[in-house]
Amino acid sequence: MTALTQTALSGAIKSMYEKRLLVRAVPRMVHGRWGVKARLNGFGSYEWRRYESLSAVTSALTEGTTPSEQSAPTLTQVTATPLFYGAWIGLSDELDMTSYDPIISEISGILGEQAGLSADTLIRNALTSGATKDYSGDQSARASLDAPLHNITYEDFLKGWTTLMAGNALPVANGNYVCIMHPHTYASLMNDPTFVNMFEKREARDDASAIRSGFAGQILMCDVYVSSNAREYADGGVGNDDVYSLLFIGDESYGVVGMAGITPEDVDTGGPEGKPLTGAGVNAAPVEIIAKPLGSAGADDPLNQRATVGWKMALDIDVLQSAFIVDLEHTNIFSED
Predict the structure, then answer these.
(1) Are strands 177-181 and 222-226 parallel, antiparallel or unpaired?
(2) In this structure, are residues 177 and 171 in contact, taking their beta carbons and an 8 Å threshold?
(3) In 3-state terms, what secondary structure has residue 210?
(4) In the chain, what is the straight-line distance between the N-terminal and C-terminal CA atoms, in Å?
(5) How far apart (Å, rounded) are the C-alpha atoms in residues 280 and 213?
(6) Quick one: 251 exposed, middle or buried, by C-beta within 10 A (0-12, 13-18, 19+)?
(7) C-alpha angle 242/226/321, rounded to 5°?
């Protein structure tokens, strides 16, 4: 009887191990790219000021009569006070000695992705909360949106864009506004023949790779960006239908403020080992990455058994002009799934 079999010597038979780790699924982080940036150092808060426009003069002057003095323009002040965010993971000395993967580097990349996602989500939530609201299908509230009856169409897109134009919003860059939508929304609009016929696919304006930057193309003076981190309200509509947000962004519509050296940079870290997906700013860290080596705790770690890797950032986001940013809430072809 044969003694040397795979079963008998199972410990000697190893799986082939792929050294290159697979890329994790991380959304394109786009929401913070077009805000008015500010960084504090030595102050606890930051203030923006805006004087409102005066109305048009439509009455002719009367000969020899001085007209009434104009009322002073209204001053609007917006104050931002950054809050601090962070997270960390502990590592043991035994893990460091026995792990086949470059564990410190890998954990740093994972935490960097989390930091980027956290910043993008905080900015996204502030924008959708402070924007001018609009709803698909001529509805007036999120709870009344019902798929497929109120699935987004070109007409809804046109109304959202018109609301931004009517608010006298200036374009962000290149003469265009910015539009951020979920892939489910993009798929729904690509089923609308009018939208498809007017949509122009182009190369990304700010990056060599459109698929990495999230840039999809242009329509109605809008640069369209697609991100899976676009806001979704699970079960927010009629009959537990999911409701999605589509943002139209004009210039100086919102501000992003951080503190000293821990302000989130305008990069994302969705690439392998925490590298930016956009391919730009490769040497820029999105936040402060903090690594404490084994034994750094002194007497609290007498046998050098514990190390930590973490991140920290300071961030506040404020909508500066709600008329310059429109949030079109809607259902789409995925809302009933």
Answers:
(1) parallel
(2) yes
(3) helix
(4) 58
(5) 10
(6) middle
(7) 85
Does residue 218 sit in the same domain as residue 298? no
Are residue 193 and residue 324 in the same domain, yes or no?
Answer: yes
What global pTM score does this model have?
A: 0.84
Same domain, 137 and 284: no
Evaluate whether residue 313 is within a structural domain: yes
Q: Residue 86 is encoded by which pair of tokens? A: 């962070």
Q: Which of 152, 182, 174, 177 is nearest to 163 (CA)?
A: 177
Q: At 175, phi and psi to the nearest 5? A: 75, 10
Instruction: Let me know whether 262 and 166 are in one domain.
Output: no
Q: Does residue 299 sit in the same domain as residue 324? A: no
Which residue range is the domain that position 206 belongs to?
Answer: 133-253+320-330
Divide the 337 residues of the chain into consecutive groups of 10 and give the mean pLDDT of each group.
53 50 64 87 84 88 92 89 91 75 75 85 95 96 97 97 94 89 97 95 58 82 93 96 97 90 62 48 61 86 88 92 96 94
